[in-house]
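Continuing the batch. This is chain 6 of the set; chains 1 through 5 are on the previous pages. Same settings as before, nothing changed between runs. Recording input and output for traceability.
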Amino acid sequence: MTPASPDSPAAPLAGVVVADLSRVLAGPYATMLLADMGADVVKVEHPERGDDTRAWGPPWAGDQAAYYLALNRGKRSLAVDVKDPDGLAAVRALCARADVVVQNFRPGVAERLGLGHADVASDNPGVVYCSISGFGPGHVRPDRPGFDVVVQGESGLMSTTGEPGGPPTKIGIPLADVLTGLNVATAVCGALVRRAATGRGGHIRVSLLNSALSGLVQVGQGALVTGVEPERVGHAHATIVPYQTFPTGDGDLVVAAGNDALYRKLCVALGRPELADDPRFRSNTDRVAHRGALVAEITAALAAGSAEEWTAILTDAGVPVGSVRGVLDAIRTADASGDDATMTVAHPTLGELELVRPGFRFDAPTPGGGAVLPPPLLGQHSAAVLEELGLSPERIAALVERGAVVQHPVR
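Output for chain 6:
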């Protein structure tokens, strides 16, 4: 576990201002990644309830939902009522000075508020504007609510997950949302590069459905090539054998012999070299055709030792292998192995808070660099952001007085 600090002397998005009008998962995850790359992200929230995920507990860290904490580090919170004319004007002013605007309002809402792409671009021609929806603007019907579990079903992701002959199974994490967040962050970075070269902003549209469909990768292409719905294969792989979990004498392992050379190494390490030359198993095509027989042979061999023993033997032999871990065990094991899987931030009410780091790392940490902002309290930075937008202390006080803005006592 390492203290959180900027990862580069010149963070890639340093100086980029992001107006984050999104909530729940896909949008906040994307803007958190932009913050991880150095962007100044202002999270616009409802003044009473804030982001929906603030209430999505248990589990809780104090009075903060773990769900919310997972998606909002590195940001500042502006809690403002966009139904209040002055509050809406402040959000419009934020969008007018932002480099990037990310929103996931229901279709039509941003336009009714004067926060749609055309409205923002009229005041801010170079803005990179991203609209996130469950189903794209051309979809029938485009106003369908876009929840991850619905999209897992609609996209085919759920149909690929589960045991052979069993029912479709929901993936354990909100994968459609996560893929959407990654697509948003990628597209925004690409648009910022184009803007730097041409001065042009643009309107990016990302949907959960299209993100999930693109995430089908080889399974989707296989369906197109064959014209046949893929079958569920449980812990195995549809087109590579052996590439699955196996029981050992005391626990499960994942073995991934992804080519013929690795398969031969596996056979030798198992003490079964004859399996490499068995005509049923010589090529991957042969192994897929005789999957059941080969899996039975490997399972019998692995039963003779423990998971720890086999991990050492197979690793030494150059065969990809890993344990099947629980979530906390996986995080702690990665941290202990030197992967710096977690970071700590100084939270204003929770104290030292441990978070999972982003999946990327930049070189050359900033000497004596400042700390990463913790997930903000609701309205923690309202007054500071409004001051930056040119509002006087008197106007800010009036907004707070009538409840159009919430300023958390902690600043």
